[in-house]
Amino acid sequence: MKSASDFRYTARKSLYGRWGIAVLAIAIVIGCNIWGKGMIKIIPILLGVLVSYLVAAFGGAVDFTAVKEAAWIGFPFQMKDTVFSLFGNCDSGMLISSIAIMMPIALATMVAQRFGKPLIYAKKAKSDNIEGGLYQSDIHSYTYKKKVTLLVSKEWFSADEKVLIIDDFMANGYAMGGLVDIVNKCGATLEGIGVAVEKGFQGGGDRLRAAGYNLKSLAIIESAEPGNIVFRED
């Protein structure tokens, strides 16, 4: 398992031999804070990073090989390292109607675009642009510490769909349980659940797996304490 101490060791290792640049950055930040005026006093950290980076670049401490070899247009990551890889190539032709709640709209949109499938958004409050009947599920929001109702219009959800649920974070799994409940209420088939970061120590993901759901997470935090985060290994 990788812990926070592993990442701290990597940071310290990358700093060896570059103490001069580090001291320069700190000196710029302190100087701007003490003697800077106007905008300079407002952005001392940014100036420290920019100046020290330029010094490092001109000093040959920055390797631009990857930049030269990169395509002019493309994603700043590889697909195998993203949520797209959770369910393979998805060549089964399943209809992916990604249900997302609040913040993970961008994540779910990227998945829907990747697979060329429609995106369905579960709302937490009814609005004027939702017409007709609604599928709904009452859940306890871990974030807001209160009961909320997830809503999906029946106009956009039918029993012949095969659904992939996408979310960014999972803690106790209450919100995810509500989305699963909505899929079951409409009679659709739940093909899988994709989560970016799962808090494994809160048990939500394990309960869904035990219930037989195909849940995949990019990262599972096994434990989190001050100064030490441990990730679960596959």
Any idea what the CATH architecture of the largest domain is? 3-Layer(aba) Sandwich
How confident overall, as mean pLDDT? 77
Order of helices and strands: HHHHHEHEEEEHEHEE
Residues in β-strands, percent: 15-25%
User: Count the strands?
Assistant: 8
Whole-angstrom Rg: 23 Å
Multimeric status of the protein: single chain
Question: Which CATH C-level class of the largest domain is it?
Answer: Alpha Beta
Total of domains: 2
Examine the coordinates and then state which fold CATH places here, giving the name of the CATH topology of the largest domain. Rossmann fold
Taking the sheet with the most strands, its summary is:
4 strands, mixed
Description:
This protein has 234 residues and is α/β, with parallel strands linked by helices. The chain has 2 domains: 4-68, no CATH class; 79-231, Rossmann fold. Helix content is 36%, strand content 24%. The chain contains 8 helices and 8 strands, in the order αααααβαββββαβαββ. It has helices at residues 4-15, 19-35, 39-42, 44-58, 65-69, 105-115, 174-186, 204-210, and strands at 98-100, 119-121, 134-141, 146-153, 162-170, 189-199, 215-225, 228-231. α2 (19-35) runs antiparallel to α4 (44-58). The longest helix is centred in the N-terminal third of the chain and has 17 residues, at 19-35. The chain is elongated. The chain starts with a helix and ends with a strand. The model is unreliable at 90-103 (pLDDT under 50).
